[in-house]
Amino acid sequence: NYGGGGGGGNGNGGNPGNGAGGYCQISWGSNGIAVANGFQPVNILQNPFTDFIKLQNTTGNETFELQNTNGQIVWCGKNINGENFSTIASGIYFVKVIRENNVQVLKVVKQ
Question: Cα separations (Å) of 1 from 21, 36, 37, 72?
Answer without folding.
Answer: 11, 11, 12, 35
